[in-house]
């Protein structure tokens, strides 16, 4: 009987030993839910975007799209010997919060690249922080021209060679909108309004220059504050100038109520804006009178592109409860630009931190067909693709009315 008990006790000790050994061969699950063997090295792709606040819908779409790219890379063992993870930081669409988010990511030695941010004003504070730590940054949504060409448009000079973007810029999007308004919609007199932020002001400046060049007239140029909610005074000034349309530089939290208040105040003309208003939330806030309003957005509609079909299907089947929004496909391509670069930079790296500078160099050379089409970067870090789409509110949804390459 005593011998039998000793056998049982020995077996129990052996089982516990084997269990402990098995547990010791695994690390904790990453942000993307994957587990990795101890022998597998870890590299992290950071995300900086608004995950809370008025622009959270777009920011969450960015995060989810990067998450999808990372999961697919791990499933396909795209980078042998490495497991990729995602670490998302909330910038609240605020420059100071963006700087803090970037600082948090630089302190993580496994972070080798970052996708984001959404806002150009946030991009201005994030750039120097990531660059100082030699971390590559690929934005799917920043359209401010100075981010890649500096403040002197006549003498462009790249501020940071660590910064790239997959979207087109304001100096393309603004003129594209101006041509549509003047040549296609036949609107010859407009009023402009912007929110004083880098994105909105840049769009209006580029739009105005092209609209006047075409022969159009800007009958009123107004501004609002980013936190305004009552646009009555501005609408009164614009209405008295009798424009046939209004071009707005800013994002949907202000643009939607502005459109609604315009129509309620008797200014029954279409409001047009950039990709910052291209969201279902704009229509929710603008209401039923938003029919006919217009927006431009980068690229062709993702759900109509043969190249984006796999992304759209994978996102739909990925269990994400939130839509990928305007920048989903561009975020997916931004993440894959980094992943493609990591094939080279991590090949012989001891750890992720030592591969940061090599990753910057490798991203500059990426050349592949992504969800949005061909992905590559010019000498400034800008996307070489210059395709945009004009959308119009019809019923309760945005519908594409014109897709073209800007020349």
UniProtKB/TrEMBL annotation:
Annotated signal sequence range: 1-22
InterPro entries cross-referenced by the UniProt entry: Leu-bd, Peripla_BP_I
Every Leucine-binding protein domain range: 44-394
Keywords of the record: Signal
Membrane-traversing stretches: none
Family assignment from sequence similarity: Belongs to the leucine-binding protein family.
Protein name per Swiss-Prot or TrEMBL: Branched-chain amino acid ABC transporter substrate-binding protein
Organism: Microlunatus elymi
Source species taxonomy: Bacteria, Bacillati, Actinomycetota, Actinomycetes, Propionibacteriales
């Amino acid at each position: 009987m005593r011998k039998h008990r000793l056998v049982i006790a020995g077996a129990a000790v052996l089982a516990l030993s084997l269990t402990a050994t098995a547990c010791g061969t695994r690390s904790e699950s990453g942000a993307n839910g994957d587990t990795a063997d101890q022998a597998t090295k870890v590299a992290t792709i950071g995300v900086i975007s608004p995950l809370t606040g008025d622009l959270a819908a777009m920011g969450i779409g960015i995060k989810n799209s990067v998450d999808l790219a990372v999961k697919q890379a791990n499933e396909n063992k795209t980078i042998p010997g490495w497991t990729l993870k995602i670490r998302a930081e909330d910038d609240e669409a605020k420059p100071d919060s963006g700087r803090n988010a970037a600082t948090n990511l630089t302190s993580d030695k496994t972070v080798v690249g970052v996708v984001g941010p959404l806002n150009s004003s946030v991009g201005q504070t994030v750039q120097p922080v990531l660059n100082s730590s030699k971390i590559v940054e690929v934005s799917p949504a920043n359209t401010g021209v100075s981010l890649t060409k500096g403040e002197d448009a006549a003498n462009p000079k790249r501020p940071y060679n660590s910064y790239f973007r997959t979207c087109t810029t304001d100096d393309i999007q603004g003129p594209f909108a101006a041509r549509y308004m003047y040549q296609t919609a036949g609107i010859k007199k407009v009023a402009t309004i912007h929110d004083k932020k880098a994105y909105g002001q840049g769009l209006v400046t580029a739009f105005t220059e092209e609209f006047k060049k075409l022969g159009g007239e800007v009958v009123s140029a107004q501004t609002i504050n980013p936190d305004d909610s009552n646009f009555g005074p501005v609408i009164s000034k614009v209405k008295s100038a009798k424009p046939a349309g209004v071009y707005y530089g800013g994002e949907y939290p202000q643009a939607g109520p502005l459109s609604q208040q315009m129509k309620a105040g008797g200014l029954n003309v279409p409001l047009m804006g950039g990709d910052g208003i291209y969201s279902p939330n704009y229509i929710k806030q603008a209401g039923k009178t938003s029919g006919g309003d217009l927006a431009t957005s980068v690229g062709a509609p993702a759900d109509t592109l043969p190249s984006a079909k796999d992304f759209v299907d994978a996102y739909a089947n990925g269990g994400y409860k939130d839509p990928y929004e305007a920048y989903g496909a561009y975020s997916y391509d931004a993440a894959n630009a980094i992943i493609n670069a990591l094939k080279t930079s991590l090949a012989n790296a001891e750890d992720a931190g030592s591969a940061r500078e090599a990753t910057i160099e490798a991203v500059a050379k990426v050349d592949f067909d992504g969800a949005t089409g061909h992905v590559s970067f010019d000498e400034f870090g800008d996307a070489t693709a210059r395709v945009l789409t004009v959308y119009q509110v019809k019923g309760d949804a945005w519908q594409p009315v014109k897709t073209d390459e800007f020349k």
